[in-house]
Amino acid sequence: MSAAAQSVDAKPADTQQELTDGFHLVIDALKLNGLTTIYGVPGIPITDFARMAQASGIRVLSFRHEQNAGYAASIAGFLTRKPGICLTVSALGFLNGLTALAHATANCFPMILISGSSERELVDLQQGDYEEMDQLAIAKPLCKAAFRVLHAADIGIGLARAIRAAVSGRPGGVYLDLPAKLFGQVIDADAGRRSLVKVIDAAPAQIPAPDAVKRALDVLRSAKKPLIILGKGAAYAQADDEIRAFVEKSGAPFLPMSMAKGLLPDTHPQCAAAARSTALKDSDVVMLIGARLNWLLSHGKGKTWGDEPKKLIQIDIEPKEIDSNVEIMAPMVGDIGSCVSAMLGAMGHGWQAAPVDWMSAIAKKREENIGKMAPRLMNNNSPMDYHGALGVLRTIVKERPDVMLVNEGANTLDLARGIIDIYQPRKRIDVGTWGIMGIGMGYAIAAAIETGSPVLCVEGDSAFGFSGMEIETICRYRLPVCIVVFNNDGIYRGTDVNSAGSDPAPTVFVKGARYDKMIEAFGGVGINATSPDELKRAVNAAMDSGKPTLINAVLDPAVGSESGRIGKFNPQSVLGKKK
Ligand code: ADP
Ligand code: TPW
Ligand code: MG
Prior knowledge:
By secondary structure, the chain is of the alpha/beta class. It has 3 domains: 13-195, Rossmann fold, CATH 3.40.50; 210-363, Rossmann fold (3-Layer(aba) Sandwich), CATH 3.40.50; 378-565, Thiamin diphosphate (ThDP)-binding fold, Pyr/PP domains (Rossmann fold, 3-Layer(aba) Sandwich), CATH 3.40.50.970. 39% of the residues lie in helices and 16% in strands. The protein has 23 helices and 19 strands. Helix 4 packs across helix 19 and helix 11 crosses helix 15. It is globular and about 80 Å long. Residues 1-10 have low confidence and may be disordered.
């Protein structure tokens, strides 16, 4: 028996020291800060941690791949304004999760990736430990902040720093490195309790300067053809009432970026989504609210933005975002809730709504475009085309506006974004800033867990493949998720042929694949839908039952264009004309 053990044993029972350890301190620190859901994959050195977390009442969602758990955590952050927690093992488990952490940072979602790691002494001397990797160094360039905790007494502070870094200012991904040894470290329970930190006001309001508010309103008032662009920062801000009041008071048309759809319903009379090109080209003053002038907005220049120079107003919490691509005449740095409230307050009574001729020009274009689209959405072709299938889903979402819509693919994404109207804030989540495939099942799981709403995933067959194994997770947790796979036999379409040999072309998959059969392996409901009518019945049944369902929607393999709507980003060969 060691001397330390002897001395503890020697104490009378009533004065025995109460102890705690790293496992419990991490759990207590998470719970103290209201972080009660973990998305992850267990294994050395965090298996017991996951078990203990679950035993303590934390909801532990165990995935089949860390990337999907990470995407789930990232979107949980977007939906709740609290950092989503992803838990992984060391080395490759960490790397799998890192993709999602980078994604969270790029999309301004708060997330904390917690990874177990191997022994510092061995890693630093590169002596070949089990799963040896210098994770902290690798994480740093891909996230907003990265921390490592070496002593159990620092767990409270370590987590507090991670939370603040994730949610304050522009939200983003944070890496928290917890070496295996830390979990087993034992300290006095009282000292442990005292070391925990409850983060107060993690994302403090950032009030805009009164000058900036006045400048912005002066520019907006000068507009003859104003336009408001709402981005996912505005959706994240959860200032829904203020934003709606401001947009309505301004009287200006608004354009929602894809994840800002529903802040005001897409059917709102001021919504210019169906007149996007006209609104962007012909406007004279554009106000950006939580939207960056990145590739998704053509960097604020070029043909899309028309010939006339525009005056720009921008609200963002990140000062460095202003003037990122073009000059911003009226920057307003602050949180969207505070900025929009300040503007509403300063607008007073008698604000002159946008000129009638501008509003009617937008309305005319919108009606024209909607009218052109309408008959295509009603076709009952079998096999289906995108419009027939999406027409049905559009009606279902209209009838069930609380559905969470998850969307990825190329044509499947671009067409669904335009066709399916969204009626409530934060009901549409998709590929985001990088346009990446693979968010589907992770997003669906987190959407179900965090919101309790039914989830409808509209997935290209390629897109679905990136996270498809998580249908087992969906079945295991019995989540109300209905996945519709738009099966056109491939990436963009299924008709490409390899003229040089017998291998299939790089963009095509097994013809006539039956994705619906996959979910049956896990006890879910699989349905093969060959017409819009069948699709409609299947989705409605899934929504009514709440049972995990996968519908293989059979699309004509010939429908779909190269890269959906962003084919212009494909480099062109100078040697041969691309098909
Ligand atoms: P979208 O892709 O919808 O155009 P982006 O992700 O490009 O949106 O832009 C979101 C912007 O919102 C980011 O520049 C981010 O700094 C900003 N943002 C995020 N949260 C807030 C907030 N609470 N207040 C102000 N700006 C915010
Ligand atoms: C992580 C490149 C963009 S869109 C897409 C790929 C592979 C799939 C399109 O086919 P899908 O949709 O989903 O069947 P549809 O309706 O057009 O047929 N790897 C990652 N991200 C991206 N964006 C790609 C590859 C890509
Ligand atoms: Mg496809």
